[in-house]
Amino acid sequence: FPPSSVTSPEVVYYYIRDLAEAVQIGMVIFATGEHSFWPDVFARLAGISNIVGFSPPGDADFSNHVGVKIQHMLPGRYVWINENEDSAMKSFKNGCQGYTTAVASLIPKSSRQFWKYGMSGDTKNMIHTYETLIKPIRDIREIGPGCEIGSIKFALEVLGRSGGPTRPPASPVSSFDKDKIINILKQHPEISDMLV
């Protein structure tokens, strides 16, 4: 929030400020758009107590750069949560405290182990956990058309959980790709015996 197409730091600041002042719950701001103004905006928002954290925008390098700058400007003020494993691997050592990932809905124990290694500074085991346990599941999102979102939803259904239908404009996973996803899930030690 707000949309990544908004390029004015003033608009972004007032949008987030007004939203935060309108609710009585803690907020983690999921920043959008690779804009250099994010650290300054978060510095201005620091006085709003219910903004408790941030997730910086962009790829692993950009999000790490923004996160480090915010943490340097405002040490200990916000919880830093990155989006996906790539960004987390780059930024745990710099103060990132968590990450978001759809994969955790499928393999929560593996995802938690990855996080624990990252937070403790055990880079070797973090990378090993990522490569052996997380990446194979994450890769189901790239099997074919419709798999970016639909693969996770389908995998949840196969595991007896509710994934729900894939919403337009995304397309559903093909039958051919569903078989590939099932075969990958069958090989994962955390969930191989959970398929329905």
Instruction: Please summarize the sheet with the most strands.
Output: 4 strands, parallel
Quaternary structure classification? single chain
N-to-C series of helices and strands? HEHEHEHEHHHH
The structural class is alpha/beta
What does this entry look like structurally?
By secondary structure, the protein is α/β, with parallel strands linked by helices. Helix content is about 50%, strand content about 10%. It is built from eight helices and four strands; from the N terminus they run αβαβαβαβαααα. A four-stranded parallel sheet has the order 1-2-3-4. Strand 1, helix 2 and strand 2 form a beta-alpha-beta unit. Helix 3 packs across helix 4 and helix 5 packs antiparallel against helix 6.
Task: Considering the chains and any ligands shown, give keywords for the structure.
196 residues, single chain, alpha/beta
Layout: helices, strands, pairs:
Elements: H1 9-22, E1 27-30, H2 38-45, E2 51-55, H3 60-73, E3 79-83, H4 85-91, E4 98-100, H5 108-120, H6 123-138, H7 147-158, H8 175-186
Parallel strand pairs: 1-2, 2-3, 3-4
Helix pairs in contact: 1-2, 2-3, 3-4, 5-6, 7-8
Please summarize what this structure is:
The protein has helices spanning about 10-20, 40-45, 60-75, 85-90, 110-120, 125-140, 145-160, 175-185, and strands at about 25-30, 50-55, 80-85, 100. It has about 200 residues and is of the alpha/beta class.
